[in-house]
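Weekly structure sync, notes
Attendees: PL (lead), two postdocs, one rotation student
Agenda item 3: pending single-chain targets
PL asked that the sequence for the first pending target be pasted directly into the notes so everyone works from the same version. It is reproduced below exactly as submitted, 249 residues in total.
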Amino acid sequence: MTKTLPTPGKDWALFLDVDGTLLDFAATPDAVEVPAELCRSLKVLDTSLGHAVALVSGRSIADLDRIFAPLMLPAAGQHGAELRLAASSAVLASAPSPQLSTVSERLRRFAAATPGVLVEDKGRSIAVHFRTADCDRGDLYRLARRAVRESGGELELLPAHEALDVRPRSANKGLAVERLMRSAPFLGRVPVVVGDDLTDEDGFRTANRFSGHAIRIGRGGKSLARWRLAAPAEVRQWLAEVAAALAEK
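Predicted structure, written out during the meeting:
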């Protein structure tokens, strides 16, 4: 078992971020690759933990289902604006902010004039990717901050890895994890939240409050997480080890 991480138990509930945590970043969101061994680990874990394994992501749930197909898991999408309590359940979604389309249009105009900037409007949140852009990032940040500020307080702007996230203030990963933890099959289990980004800190806070474990991916920056792994490859290796350990119990 990977050292310096908590000992896995059959009473765990796993809440896993996707990009930068399970998967390596790619030039665009559609270009990510899902290793077959990761899907095998997730299937074993889903069975061993009584289906208490959830994806908690900025992506939409429909997108999560697409990239992990045919595997389907409980999920929180768009930073918690969407929720699926079980793989077979319907997706519960908050009403989209009426201001989101206005912010999206302003960002799209900037992207149209700036090669490499991609605006991903997911219906209840927006991601602005600039991993391949050659532009003044300051101009983009200022435009995004101004657009969100003028939205009337319903939305907030968060920095991400080579991206910006615009999400409803009423949705975050911490609230999503809490809602899942109050429903079967997660109810009464020990939450283990794994993520790499600022948006995952809300989930870490909830894990700590439920006397669980928080694992931050990446070496730098302050975090509420007690535990660390360096990169998605280490996460995948650790999950394979946890799956093997739990399958033997």
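Discussion points:
- The longest helix spans residues 232-248.
- DSSP finds seven helices and twelve strands in the chain.
Action: rotation student to compare against the earlier draft before next sync.
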